[in-house]
Amino acid sequence: MWSSRFAFIxxxxxxxxxxxxxxxxxxMAGENGGGAFVLFYLLCVVAIGLxxxxxEIMIGRRGRRNPIATMRIxxxxxxxxxxxxxxxxxxxxxxFLILSFYSVIAGWALAYFVFSLGGEFTGGTPExxxxxxxxxxxxxxxxxxxxxxxxxxxxxxVARGVERGLERFVRIxxxxxxxxxxxxxxxxxxxxxxxxxxxxxxxPDLEALTPQAMLEAMGQAFFTLSxxxxxxxxxxxxxPEGTSILRTSIWVxxxxxxxxxxxxxxxxxxxxxxGLDPASGPGLIFETLPLAFGSMPGGAFLAPVFFGLLVFxxxxxxxxxxxxxxxxxxxxxGRSRRSAAIVIGAIVWALGFLTLLSxxxxxxxKFLGGTLFQNIDHLASNILLPLGGxxxxxxxxxxxxxxxxxxxxxxxxxxAYQAWRxxxxxxxPAAVLVVFLHATGLLGRFGLM
Length: 449
Ligand code: TRP
Description:
The chain has helices at 5-16, 19-31, 35-63, 67-77, 85-117, 126-138, 140-160, 166-191, 194-202, 211-225, 231-236, 245-273, 284-295, 299-333, 337-357, 372-399, 402-409, 415-439, 442-445.
């Protein structure tokens, strides 16, 4: 059990806030033309992500097991089929895929932590900083080393089951990260092209909202909130009765969204002040932030603190990605926590090499229009998470009866409950389906959108 509501919020926020906010959101917004993508992402966060987060915590607390067993058991309790457990299976698979590339990117952040300790950013220009990133990407052995270190750190914690010891760290690291981002924001306002950055990020150009951009914005909403794969369900399993699920979820969603927007408002002013390309892809923060640290007062000290905190934020997310699979293996197969964490960690680690090599050795190997990394990310974030979320919403809204959900949410049956139920029953599932269909081009072909 979590010791308090606050401890639970910290744990869920620790899982939600991570590379998704600081690394992925800015580069995805950059690739998809900015404002319109951001607007659609915000809509998805509120109308799809929030009700699904509420649903996941609610189902988790009711089932009190790993996501597979929880979905199966609550499904049976509600008079439905045990095959709902398959949603948990899909979620665990999605978590595998996500962690495999997440760890590689967290490895980049680790490398940058060490670069910054060595003063590599001081006086950097877009050329030298760009070259530093390119040389890191080109060296697959180095990337492999950092990826390995991150996986060992993550497996180490999950193997010993001391996740809750992290509470204390999150309590310090989260405000620390926020403080550093505010310092960076001040830099972006006084020393970079804040007006252009603001305009790019927050002025929607609806022309840029292609069906593909909509799919990616929806995927990003799922990814950044950690929903759609049962991870939050696994956390909810340890939530004491009498804690408000709705208020907790709102807190986490607001914090997570604020940090992503802050990251965007820091990165894009630096992009435009230096004549960089907002659509340059996954390297975006690694090609921009060092420029800020390299030229701001105290930057040599702040850079390692920032990248250290970023690694930490990635670490708390990595733990959350690994935990559901390990909990399942322990509860359903009677494995020891230690061996489950090591075996699963090793598989994820090996899978990570597909991502790692797709930035160098296999950079030209493309299928379905993307590199291995792009395909793994696309499958997990833009397809499996929304699909999992669709089933979770249907389960919470249709399979669970009104009595069960209103009892578990404990907010009566007033407007807040009605709003949640409407979103879970109708809007969230319909929105996911429409975005999926739209991305296949079918709606356009029939002149429906
Ligand atoms: N939300 C995390 C981030 O933004 C990534 C993530 C996705 C995650 N699904 C998760 C983390 C499940 C923990 C558990 O970085």
